[in-house]
Design brief:
By secondary structure, this protein is an all-alpha fold. The chain has one domain. Helix content is about 55%, strand content about 0%. The relative contact order is 0.15. The mean pLDDT is about 85.
Length: about 110
C-alpha cells in the first residue's frame, strides 16, 4: 500500500514587531471632508423628516449638494486626506458620488413646490 506524503508543517510566520510610534497615522483632520458630507446629509434628512412632504424638494436638493461636495472633495484631496470618502479607487468614488448627486438633483428639480 502506498503511503501519502505528509505535508510539511512549517511554524507560522510572525510579523516583525513594529513600534507604536512607527505606525502610519492618518493626518490630523483627515475625516473632516467625510464629516462635512455626513453633517449635510443628516441635516437634509432631518429637514425632510421634520417638514414632511412640504420639505421634500429642499431636502432632496440638499442631499444632492452633499453628494456633490463629497465628489468634489474626493477629486481634489489626496488619498491620505480624503478619509472615509476614499473607499475605492478615486475614479470609482467620484463617479459614484456624482451619479448619486445628479440623480438626486433631477428628482429634486422634478418634485413640485409645495
Amino acid at each position: 500500500m502506498l503511503r501519502r506524503a505528509e505535508p510539511s508543517r512549517r511554524p507560522p510566520r510572525r510579523r516583525a514587531a513594529v513600534p507604536h510610534a512607527a505606525r502610519a497615522k492618518p493626518p490630523r483632520g483627515a475625516q473632516i471632508p467625510y464629516l462635512l458630507v455626513l453633517a449635510v446629509t443628516i441635516g437634509a434628512l432631518a429637514w425632510m423628516w421634520q417638514g414632511g412632504i412640504q420639505r421634500a424638494k429642499e431636502g432632496t436638493l440638499a442631499l444632492a449638494a452633499a453628494m456633490f461636495i463629497g465628489a468634489l472633495a474626493r477629486t481634489v484631496l489626496p488619498e491620505s486626506r480624503a478619509g472615509l470618502l476614499a473607499s475605492r479607487r478615486r475614479p470609482v468614488d467620484v463617479v459614484s458620488l456624482a451619479a448619486l448627486g445628479v440623480g438626486l438633483l433631477v428628482v429634486g428639480l422634478v418634485l413640485p413646490q409645495s
